[in-house]
Amino acid sequence: MHLITKRIICLALTGALCLSFASCSESNKTGKYAWIDSDLIDNQDLSGSCRLQDDFAASANSDWIMNHTYDPLGPNGSFEDTKLTVDQQKRALLDDASKTSKNLELIRSYDSLFSDWDYRDQTGVEPLRKYIGYIDDISTLEDAGKYMLDNVKNPFAVSLVKLSAAKHQGEDQYKCLEINQPDYSLGKASEYYSIRDKGLQERDRTTATVNCLMTKLGYSREDSRRLLNECFAFETKLADINPEGMSLDAYNLIVTRDQVLEASGGYPLNDMLEHYCLGKAVAYNADLIYLKGLDSVFTAKNLEGIKAYFKVRLMMNSLPLLDEESFTLYRENMVDRMNPFGSVSEGRPDRYLFHILGNSCLNAAMDQAYLDEYYDENVFQDLTDLSNMLIDGYREILDSKDWISDENKARLNEKLDNMALLIINPSNTADFGNMSFVSKEDGGSLLDAYCKINEFEIRHLGDITTMRFDRTYWDIYDVTISTTATGSAYAPWLNVLYIHIGILSGNIYSPDMTIEQKLGAIGAVIGHEMTHAFDSNGVNYDFYGNKKAVIEGNDMETFSSLSSKVTSYYEGITPFKGADTYAIDNILSGEAIADMGSVKCALMIAKDIEGFDYDLFFRSYATLWRSMCPKGDVIWYMREDDHPLHYLRINVTLQQFDEFYITYNIQPGDNMYLAPEDRIAIW
């Protein structure tokens, strides 16, 4: 999983803050319950009173914590520092007229439309009116079918199915064209059957968006209410077809085009596949239950509901691309209303630009321009060498585990030997051909631009589904693995590790770092992702990425027991008074296992390096995870992010290893001490 957080404009969910009651020196609590959440703004003044032996995260980062001035616009930590550097470098490229390329010119054209807020406020929501009008012009079911295929009138390619591509079990030669249920206003089809808190929140976001934009377009509140009711009613009919979505068996089922078209009946799916050059896909995976029921919903009787659905999806997708008032509502909609400390996030203008850009395939143009400017062959080789050192360290770890049979060790080593390391460079080069956007001087808009972006994206999907499958193919157009993202990733279904160029600066990486610093920073990042091959999820995939366990028999029972012990260790930890506690079923064991595995791997390397500075290594690791945030962020992390909180990533991880105890003379009675029999590191 990505080390970076998985949210939108991410690092400033501020709220009314009150002082934490946790303290290093005054609390009667001991061990892990005595640590302060040193990431929390409220605890800024407390870190200076902590001993290394009692709270390493707070003490090791105390100088930075006590002297850092929190800025809601960021940066407030090592990963944010690095992201800011990348954003500044991107902006410098866009502003430097001497830098010329087709990709840069395309992004500059997009930037001109996005970043000129005076122009956006001047045009207001008028760009949306034209597209609403196209939907109003639909008078027959045939018109509705034509609208879904119109690249000029349908900027987000909205239809009643969602198309994507992925590798599936049973098909090794090609990626499958996935045909699934579309986006819903309540989030998931099951919410229409039994609505829960998340469904209610999504409904409220949809309602707020439609009410705002309809009012700005001159419609009455009654018009908004009627539109929403028609949309929700139609979505309920769609959701009723298969409310629980695809079963695991159905998800892994490979079908043919004929089976897909037969299931879709009168729905114009064949026209869609042909229009977007998707008809040559070799393998398909589809929600056949949904497709079979879609024929009974895509009817003239439901035409008004279909049009209402088109309008609501159009408005939801358009919200961040209109005027500043609309964009503010978009940010307000991102607040988790179930978070008692949540509030509207703030951010630098370029953060908004690159975030919105990063949600579309056009981001590949920015990635390519960045690579053209900043790729360094020496850095590539340095990371390759470091990664190979970590692989050797991991091989030594696997071979040292006496609870694993020789047969299982052989499978684990086979997986390690076949792990593909994709470093910095995607496999293809971004090329958008003759794509261009109508400028603001000629009355262009971001919605007009998205018509062309989405057409390109879907046609590229056709290319992907006709290419011979190669698990090591890193598609530069894939927004989920953008190389300028501040992170790294491991894909268990491919057995592939990605190292992004966007993480290679600041406290995370510099070519001039010592080996101790590299192992404690970028080495820990790479080692973390490497360990995902052997965490509670990764062990269920083989060396090629097939869903086949690499640990079998009694050894798997032992591994599951060890994994449960990792999760249980977090039970009852509360970062501040009034916050949630980690529950025993919290899905974080895989991430915690990965953190501990990365440090163990680095220590295996360190033991063979004469004069290795363990203090510098451990402090570099603490620096990697230093951050500062308000309570709203802490709550968000605990509820939405599988990773432990940053202070726990430091303290829990390091207290597992003898080298840490020796370096700081940690003894029973110190809060960082954990008895050997209670330690939870698996690897």
Helix share of residues? 40-55%
Which of globular, elongated, flat, extended, rod-shaped describes the shape?
globular
- Major sheet details: 3 strands, mixed
Report Rg: 26 Å
What's the number of helices? 28
Distance N terminus to C terminus? 18 Å
Mean pLDDT equals: 92
Low-confidence stretches: 1-23
Coarse structural class: mainly alpha
For this entry, what is the oligomeric state of its chains? single chain
Give the DSSP E fraction (strand runs of 2 or more residues): under 5%
Strand segment count: 6
Strand order of the largest sheet: 1-2-3
Protein model, in words:
It is a single chain. The chain is mainly alpha-helical. It is built from 28 helices and six strands. A three-stranded mixed beta sheet has the order 1-2-3. A hairpin with a 2-residue loop joins strand 1 and strand 2. Helix 8 packs antiparallel against helix 9, helix 8 packs antiparallel against helix 15 and helix 11 packs parallel to helix 13. The radius of gyration is 26 Å and the shape is globular.
